[in-house]
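Comment on the following before class.
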Amino acid sequence: MMTLISTLTSFLAGGLPKLLSIFQDRQDKKHELAMMNAQKEKELALVERGYLAQAKVEEIKLEQVSLQTAMEERSALYQHDMEIGKGASQWVINLRASVRPVITYGMFLLLVFVDIAGFVYAWRMGTDFQIMLDYMWDEDTQIIWSSVIAFWFGTQAFSKK
């Protein structure tokens, strides 16, 4: 039961950023729809007055402003990332980026080492395979390992667009 709860919690924790981005996306789309309605009303008013060419110019200007805003946002994100690593060597920056994967690899290697050592010990002691398996792959090990896997693969599943 704890394995199921732990797996579900880890999977959902991996998807939390995506869930938050869905809410943000919903607000963005609502705003864009309001902007499109205002733009459409403006275009209709311009067409009625015979200013169709002016409407196209305004549309191009609006698109340029949107592109400029997106470019500035991306630039601000890059600047923020550079400020975090400012003054650090490339080795430190790479080390900081590898913390979570290294911990995951370490957990996996520890699991493999403990299981192999336990298997060899139990085999030499003449322990029955089913009893050996119950000790090596107990509920606590299942909880920990399912949490790690659900978090990593849950994050990957939610980050796909």
Remarks:
- The chain has two domains: 26-89, 98-155.
- The chain is about 90% helix and 0% strand.
